[in-house]
Design goal:
Number of helices: 11
Structural class: alpha/beta
CATH topology: TIM Barrel
Order of helices and strands: EEEHEHEEEHEHEHEHHEHHHH
Radius of gyration: 19 Å
Strand order of the largest sheet: 3-4-5-8-9-10-11
Number of domains: 1
Number of strands: 11
Bound molecules: NADP nicotinamide-adenine-dinucleotide phosphate
CATH architecture: Alpha-Beta Barrel
CATH superfamily: NADP-dependent oxidoreductase domain
Oligomer: single chain
């Protein structure tokens, strides 16, 4: 039985190993995705007690939410699963725009509820900040939706620390989702002191640096998806990053687990990090990531990894 963790001060309790579902129907992010494989990996997650699934309007767009809804419905486990989804983007004339206005957010929540075939969204994030809406007003609109029972918890993503403070002026923010992994640690100084102090859960995205921190890539690996544009994969740093990842392999080998398990277990030892949502392309990866729950890191190991990835 997994010990569930509370998302900030919200009423939501989740398995600390969740599922990032941007490769479930996320055709605009990854070419040639098979929707049945996507549905199957969500099914595997739910059947194996992974009760925290992260999606967004923009994954597909729309398709990730729709596919998750189909699996949820057939599972009969709606009440056991915590769905986190995100809104803020709109596509106009092929261009992506961001809108945090209360009217837009209210409308998008209704659309998301329909795609998810549900009466409530467990965790609703504003995916990106816009440039004009005062952030406490945007969050005020979500608080009204919460009071109306349409959402259960409020999150923000990709907000600067200043925008987060403005958003949380009335103390309504439950969760922050931001980029954080061993190769990108600025959140430790920019967000963690504030989120810890205000009992806000921090959920890292790109926890595996899009697969790089699994230790399975080599200098020969090439990429034709969103990774082409990610900083971790750029020529100047890629081989250096691979060398750093290799240094975790010793610890993994001693414990008879994979590099990814050590990396994910390390995050869960950080006070600010409540749960992780590694993405998966298939059911095997889902099952594999769940093995993290069996990994115990000693204080020494935590410090060694900390030092390895300081520079
Ligand atoms: P990630 O979790 O860092 O990496 C996931 C990728 O690593 C998988 O797609 C898979 O790619 C590989 N992988 C995962 N488990 C593995 C295993 N056990 N063994 C080997 N390879 C494994 O990156 P991410 O999926 O982009 O980020 C996680 C989630 O965060 C997303 O799914 C999404 O829900 C969310 N997110 C949010 C934002 C935001 O703006 N809020 C931005 C990005 C992501 P391959 O098999 O192709 O190598």
């Amino acid at each position: 039985m997994v010990n569930k963790v509370q998302l900030g001060k919200s009423e939501l309790f989740v398995n600390p190993i969740g599922l990032g579902a941007n490769a479930v129907g996320g055709h605009n992010l990854y070419p040639n995705l098979d929707e049945e494989v996507g549905k199957d990996l969500v099914r595997t997650a739910i059947e194996n007690g992974m009760n925290f699934i992260d999606t967004a309007f923009s994954y597909g767009p729309e398709r990730s939410e729709e596919l998750i809804a189909e699996v949820l419905k057939e599972s009969g486990k709606r009440n056991e699963v915590i769905i986190g989804t995100k809104i803020a983007q709109k596509f106009m004339d092929g261009k992506k725009m961001i809108d945090n206005s209360p009217a837009f957010l209210r409308n998008e929540v209704e659309k998301s509820l329909k795609r998810l075939q549900t009466e409530y969204i467990d965790l609703l994030y504003i995916h990106y900040p816009d440039e004009t809406t005062p952030k406490d007003e945007a969050i005020g609109a979500l608080k009204q939706l919460k009071d109306a029972g349409k959402i259960r918890a409020i999150g923000v993503s990709n907000f600067s620390p200043e925008q987060l403070k403005e958003a949380n002026k009335d103390g309504y923010v439950d969760v922050v989702q931001g980029e954080y992994n061993l190769l990108s640690r600025s959140a430790e100084s920019s967000y963690f002191p504030y989120t810890i102090e205000n009992n806000i859960a921090f959920i890292p995205y790109f926890p595996l640096a899009s697969g790089l921190l699994t230790g399975k890539y080599t200098t020969e690996s090439t990429f034709n998806d969103l990774r082409k544009g990610l900083p971790y994969f750029q020529e100047q740093v890629f081989s250096k990053n691979l060398e750093k990842v290799e240094q975790i392999r010793n610890i993994a080998n001693q414990k008879g687990v994979d590099v990814a398990h050590i990396v994910l277990a390390w995050y869960l030892k950080q006070e600010a990090v409540t749960a992780v949502i590694p993405g998966a392309k298939n059911s095997e990866q889902v099952l594999n990531n769940l093995k993290t729950l069996d990994v115990q890191l000693t204080n020494d190991e935590i410090l060694v990894i900390d030092e390895l990835f300081r520079a």
